[in-house]
Write a structure and sequence with these properties.
single chain, alpha+beta, Cytochrome Bc1 Complex, Chain D, domain 2, 3 domains, about 25% helix, disordered N terminus
Length: about 575
């Protein structure tokens, strides 16, 4: 007998003697039973290879527990685990108190969910592709298990590996016996042993890349090894939070307001818009005016728009930006669109929200070089701003926080999703043969073992936004700029920079965090040539031959042609 979860809860509520307790699950990667440290090249496989792990992403589904009577009770359908984000635990829901003898679940979602529309899922849903970064690009289905890192073979040669386990035929059911007595909120701790997963696999001879195509021996071996990788490590209790979280109160919302209609491409996932800063017409209009006003700078000479011009997809067409008094910065201006789906801002990700990001340039001595006392005083004495703040906020007095909320509201509305590529994807247009070839190269891995000779761009620049919104070391010749390391001070983050979107990339030259490349042709040459060796070089680049991909000139031209189809006319 198989009881749906809601029926199990109903039966539990009807029985006066049966109570319910909350159950959580934790899954952590280990090696030979010991916790794995990310980006530590010290774990030895059965093939004598030394590996490190930089990415561990896991998508599980269909959780059920078996009671003493043999019935299975369904619980939370999806769980997403991500080691880099320290996301190891998920709540499975309430379980009728009692003893349970087994747990079962699947690696990967069921076929109907695997091929569902990803735009339907809420921002915090495990199947939201912005959250999990596990959705295949422009084809149906999710990656069930993503393992990436660096390895060294017995001959001391270094390389990268990228094992992406996916596709309906590879979905695996895992069933583990247990002796679980649920009375109080309980966490079931599972281990995922990578040494067991890689048992009898040599990355250097069997393959260090897989995208789980049919009849791929490497993915078939992974499928055979998967059940042995899971084990139950321990049980622990936890304090269950309230069933309903505290409601989020909007900040400074006036008594009357007009909601702003946020629009996006229907293929885009649901964005996590800030609930405490609801989009209103007045706030968006105020934010737009502030963005385009020189009042924010010390000498009233420049504004936000000076480094982020709409004609350049909100960049400034300079290698590095210039501020008040023509002061020169060290980084290239990033484009400002589709920010509603980002979680970290600046090249090093030091700002965790847009409202935090927008304030920093105002007081930065190289950028607008101002102070908030001066800015607020100017706004209060301005002939228009007091009335605009009164429409947007209650109380209306300008403050740095309200300035940040207004700028955040405006920037959230800058959405780009209409290009020749989008029209072709929707069947409203067609790419040229050269552009279609470029698209094929862009979304195809480079794996001679399986006779795939693509450009491998999609690993970092995939998804609807042509960015994974993460941080990568992309093999550039290194400078004093250390990227994400400036924020975390972790060695694993040296030379990792935020991945910019490739939408509108035709308009955002020059390229890279320091603007070192003037043209798209130079960018393509970099990615198809030898990479700068580094301990933090992204595995999806480190896995390529030391000589680079060596694409033909015609294929390079096709890639450039495809990238130009991503231009949105509204940002020209």
């Amino acid at each position: 007998m198989h009881l749906p979860f809601y029926k199990a809860v109903l039966l539990a509520g009807l029985a006066a003697t049966v109570q319910a307790a909350q159950l959580a699950i934790e899954v952590k990667p280990v090696f030979d039973g010991r916790a794995m440290q990310l980006d530590s090249l010290k774990y030895r496989t059965s093939a004598g290879e030394t590996i490190g792990l930089s990415r561990f992403g896991l998508l599980l589904s269909g959780f059920s527990l078996q009671g003493q009577d043999g019935d299975w009770i369904d619980m939370e359908p999806y769980v997403f685990i991500d080691a880099a984000a320290r996301r190891y635990e998920a709540r499975l829901g309430n379980l009728p108190a009692g003893r349970y003898s087994a747990i079962r679940f699947h690696v990967g979602p069921a076929p109907e969910a695997n091929h569902s529309n990803p735009a339907q899922y809420a921002a915090n849903h495990p199947l939201n592709p912005v959250l999990n970064n596990l959705l295949w690009d422009w084809q149906s289905g999710y990656i069930f298990l993503a393992l990436e890192g660096r390895y060294r073979n017995p001959d001391q040669a270094f390389s990268g590996y990228a094992l992406h386990y996916a596709n309906d035929w590879n979905r695996v059911r895992i069933e583990l016996p247990l002796d679980l007595d649920v009375r109080d909120p309980t966490t079931l701790h599972l281990q995922f042993d990578i040494s067991a997963l890689l048992d009898s696999i040599s990355l250097s001879t069997d393959g260090h890349i897989t995208h789980s195509r049919k009849n791929d021996p490497l993915s078939q071996q992974l499928k055979e090894n998967l059940p042995a990788a899971f084990s139950i490590a321990a049980l622990s209790s936890f304090s269950a939070p309230p069933v309903t979280a505290e409601p989020v109160e909007p900040l400074y919302l006036p008594d009357t307001y007009e909601p702003y209609r946020f629009t996006m491409d229907r293929s885009y996932p649901v964005p996590p818009l800030p609930r405490d800063n609801p989009l209103t017409t007045a706030r968006v209009e105020l934010g737009k005016k502030l963005f385009n006003d020189t009042l924010l700078s010390r000498n009233r000479s420049i504004g936000c728009f000076s480094c982020h011009a709409q004609a350049n997809a909100f960049t400034d067409a300079r290698p590095v930006s210039r501020g008040v008094g023509d002061a020169t910065g060290t980084l290239n201006a990033m484009p400002l669109f589709n920010l509603a789906w980002k979680q970290n801002f600046f090249w090093d990700g030091r700002a965790p929200s847009l409202r935090d990001q927008v304030l920093q340039p105002i007081t930065n001595r190289i950028e607008l070089a101002n102070d908030f006392t001066t800015v607020v005083d100017r706004l209060q004495k301005h002939p228009q701003y007091p009335a605009l703040f009164a429409k947007a906020f209650n109380p209306p007095a300008p403050t740095p926080e309200k300035i940040s909320l207004a700028l955040e509201a405006y920037l959230l509305t800058l959405v780009s999703g209409h290009s020749r590529f989008d029209e072709a994807r929707q069947g409203k247009g067609k790419l040229t043969p050269q552009e279609a070839r470029g698209m094929e190269l862009f979304f195809t891995e480079y794996d001679p073992r399986t006779r795939q000779y693509g450009a491998d761009c999609f690993h970092c620049h995939g998804g609807a936004f042509f960015s994974d919104h993460l941080f990568h070391n992309n093999g550039l010749e290194q400078t004093d700029e250390k990227g994400r390391y400036k924020v975390t001070r972790q060695a694993r983050d040296r030379f990792r920079f935020s991945t910019p979107s490739l939408r509108n990339v035709e308009l955002t030259a020059p390229y890279m965090h320091d603007g070192r490349f003037k043209t798209l042709e130079e960018v393509i040459n970099h990615y198809t040539s030898p990479m700068q060796p580094s301990d933090t070089l992204d595995p999806n680049l480190a896995k390529h031959p030391r000589t680079g991909l060596q694409l033909s000139e015609s294929d390079k031209a096709a890639l450039v042609a495809f990238l130009k189809t991503l231009t949105d006319p509204q940002y020209q």
